[in-house]
UniProtKB/TrEMBL annotation:
Annotated function: The electron transfer flavoprotein serves as a specific electron acceptor for other dehydrogenases. It transfers the electrons to the main respiratory chain via ETF-ubiquinone oxidoreductase (ETF dehydrogenase).
Classification via InterPro entries: DHS-like_NAD/FAD-binding_dom, ETF_a/b_N, ETF_a/FixB, ETF_asu_C, Rossmann-like_a/b/a_fold
Family to which this protein belongs: Belongs to the ETF alpha-subunit/FixB family.
The protein's name: Electron transfer flavoprotein subunit alpha/FixB family protein
One family name in Pfam for this protein: ETF_alpha
Subunit description: Heterodimer of an alpha and a beta subunit.
Domain Electron transfer flavoprotein alpha/beta-subunit N-terminal: 2-177
Amino acid sequence: MTKVYIFAESAAAAAELATWARRSGAASSILAVGDAGDLAGAGADEVIVLKGGSERPEDYAIAIAAIVGEDAGGLLLASSTVAGREVAANVAGRLGCAMVSDASSLELRGTFLRAERTVLGGAVVDVCEAPLPCVATVAPGIVEPEPAPQESAVEERVVEVDGRIVRRSLSPFPVGDVDLEKASVVVCVGMGIDGPEDVAMAQKLADGLGGAVGCTRDVAEGRKLLPKDRYIGITGAIVKPELYLSMGVSGQLQHVYGMRDSKVVVAVDSNKDAPIFRAADYGVVGDLHEVVPQIIAAVGAH
Ligand SMILES: Cc1cc2nc3c(=O)[nH]c(=O)nc-3n(C[C@H](O)[C@H](O)[C@H](O)COP(=O)(O)OP(=O)(O)OC[C@H]3O[C@@H](n4cnc5c(N)ncnc54)[C@H](O)[C@@H]3O)c2cc1C
């Protein structure tokens, strides 16, 4: 039976990967750094807590490689985070095995792992197979976690760490007060807007619908009309609202990648050939300054 090792940075991510392992008929071990936290409830067969005196999860790759390497057909899964990618690459290098990065779906096929990855800004799905043992990093949210069948046994191990990189400080990054990724309605502004008065118009509509305002990258990074944490896309936030409504967004692949799982998409754009209309359920071809005030009036936003 294939053994799945899960490099855990959060109980939520570990629960997704443990659910996938159970559904695939594989045994699973969560490898945690420092303490077990809530991981015993994540649904793996066991939790191994690595204790090596370093606070940097990345430094535990030596120990993780040693554990995964004991298993001839093992599979190490890590989330596609900075630490997850670093550990995965380090372990793959130490074991001399294959690594698949940013998988959006996984399937065990005998002695192979089959994975899908979305590449080229969401335009192409790359399906690949790697022989076990191997390592994969996994995009968040690809598995709906199931409740754990039982609490896992927790074992602590004192291990060797790589102490060459010294952390000098760790301070929280300032984040805005809007959690776009959890918003049920997103009103998105693109470069078709004129300026701050149009952002205010979008905010009025979002307030009326109980939602949040997002934007394209160029609006945040180029024109700096909204903070960077508000832009949606392949290098920005990934949103899945019930309603996504765009104003003056052309719908380039890099943006659409971040909103394509929205339930209902409404687009307002003056160019009838704008690609956003291909991703939209409802489209209005027109000047946003004429169309959006009518939507605001229709939904009774004041
Ligand atoms: C490596 C890379 C990564 C990227 N990552 C991202 C990303 O994560 N997210 C992202 O958003 N972008 C990203 N981009 C940028 C992306 O390619 C586009 O440039 C950007 O999304 C376009 O933004 P836009 O739709 O606001 O502007 P435009 O493409 O300029 O579109 C403006 C639209 O407004 C319409 N318009 C103009 N005036 C009006 C009006 N009065 N009323 C109605 N409509 C009007 C136009 O018809 C047009 O369709 C990335 C680019 C690269 C190269």
